[in-house]
Amino acid sequence: MRGADSYNEALFSTVRLDEFVPASHPLRPIRTWLNEALAKMDAKFSAMYEADVKGGRPSIAPEKLMRAMLLQVLYSIRSERQLVEQISYNLLFRWFVGLSIEDTVWNHSVFSKNRDRLIEFDAVTELFNATVEMAATKGLLSGEHFSVDGTLIQAWASHKSVRRKDGSDDGRPPENWHGDKRSNATHASATDPESRLYRKSSAAPAQLSYLGHVLTDNRHGLVVNVRASTADGYAERDVAATLLGDVARPDVRVTVGADKGYDTRGFVKACREMKVTPHVARNTRRTGGSAIDGRTTRHGGYAMSQRRRKCIEQCFGWGKTIGPIRQVMVRSLAKVDQLFTLTMAAYNLTRLRSLAALRPQVV
């Protein structure tokens, strides 16, 4: 017998939101770990809103905002308007954020208003650090063998926004820039002044960009340190030395794998001063020769570091295909650094989920 095409909505429902999410859904372990990390940040969240205690309406819970920001990265949602729209009718998103079916979703402008507050109190950085601590407690980090690399992050600005710093072309149409010689010393973007014209190779065009730097642990490729910087020819090595300084241990000799771009005497010297063995790929074509000699390359660990260092490209690939760091939709170095750090935190959580499926004992 044919069923009737009817729709009768009950006045009340006894189905819990949690029942709509399958027990095997990949977001379940991520939400559990995320809630543990956010619970440890309760004191920081309280400090963020101490200045508003005298008046005003209660704010949106920062825990909900950070869960929503992480969803935006995990599901490649292009804008905060689309994110709010998804949360309003997507039961999975409501469950992950922590909203009931009856709760009203906030306006998309809430993210813009609270982004500066999260930057001021380094909330995203603390969330990232929590994912690293979680991996350490589960025995997923070696703590001794690392890889370092950088990637180009295209800024949210176009060539038409680049103007002379002295203002001599203020009356000139922005379309007439072809054929002009430009440099970071004489020109800057009017929409994102902190971005820099940069290219990774002589065959690539110069783009307004930032640089993202990552330090990964060689055991499972988890990101243990992250930072964004302005784009120039020295930032990759300078920031890499800073990242290594945070993990260097005076009692243990650690190693770091890197590509030929790090084969400079300054970087190698900085590593050895920190008691870090530089397992850097040799660049014999550099003027003066390679800074790495047979004292380093003769050991088996050097060849292993060179094999493992290539795994660092996985976090960059994930961040640019799934995440939003191919071209960021925020402006200023602080906001780019926040988004880059959040993306690497999301990458760590997905890696932890995959490792937990392979090794159930790490859950």
TrEMBL record:
Residues 16-117 form the Transposase InsH N-terminal domain. It comes from the Bacteria. GO terms for molecular function: DNA binding; transposase activity. Residues 163-197 are annotated as: Disordered. Residues 210-349 form the Transposase IS4-like domain. Residues 164-183 have a biased composition (Basic and acidic residues). It holds the Pfam family DDE_Tnp_1. Keywords: DNA recombination, DNA-binding, Transposition. GO terms for biological process: DNA transposition. Involved in the transposition of the insertion sequence IS5. Belongs to the transposase 11 family. PANTHER family: TRANSPOSASE INSH FOR INSERTION SEQUENCE ELEMENT IS5A-RELATED (PTHR35604). This is Transposase. It comes from Thiomonas arsenitoxydans (strain DSM 22701 / CIP 110005 / 3As). The lineage of its organism: Bacteria, Pseudomonadati, Pseudomonadota, Betaproteobacteria, Burkholderiales.
